Amino acid sequence: MALSAVRAIAAAGINASLAAPSLTETILPVEDLILHVENGATSSTVTLVDGGVSPAGGLGASQTIVVGASAKMFIAVNPALVAPATGLITVTFSNATTITGEWLSR
Predict the structure, then answer these.
(1) Is residue 5 a part of any domain in this protein?
(2) Domain count, the chain
């Protein structure tokens, strides 16, 4: 699993550059991180994995987003999802066949 790259959105704008994701992506936490996804014919689930723990020591609560068939979404990624052990944020995809995406920041 390779570390995903983030593209900065310039003031003049940028063209979309979507690609099929791995089933598990890792990303450095950056300010204003956005996951842009576009889906094909079947629904897909994107899970933002909470790498932390609660104050009581339990696992953090991951955020699950359903991306409907033929849907296009921009998902804000909270930098607090970083895993303390790795310093990275993990995102999983239920399938990598019909969904494409890109990482953006402002």
Answers:
(1) no
(2) 1
How far apart, in whole angstroms, are the C-alpha atoms of residue 92 and residue 57?
Answer: 23
Is 50 part of a structural domain of the chain? Answer: yes
Please give the full DSSP string across 20-82, using - where no structure is assigned.
PPPSEEEE---TTEEEEEEE-SS-EEEEEE--SB-TTSPBP--EEEEE-TT-EEEEE--GGG-
Residue 12, exposed/middle/buried by CB under 10 A (0-12, 13-18, 19+)?
A: exposed
Q: In the block, which residue shows the tokens 């932390």?
A: 52
Does residue 1 fall inside a structural domain? Answer: no
47-83 residue pLDDT tens: 999 887 755 566 778 999 999 999 999 999 988 888 8
Q: What single-letter DSSP state applies at residue 19?
A: B
Could you tell me the pTM of the whole model?
A: 0.88
The torsion defined by the Cα of 49, 53, 54 and 57, in degrees rounded to 10, comes to 140
Q: What is the pLDDT of residues 9-44, one digit of tens each?
A: 999 999 999 999 999 999 999 999 999 999 998 999
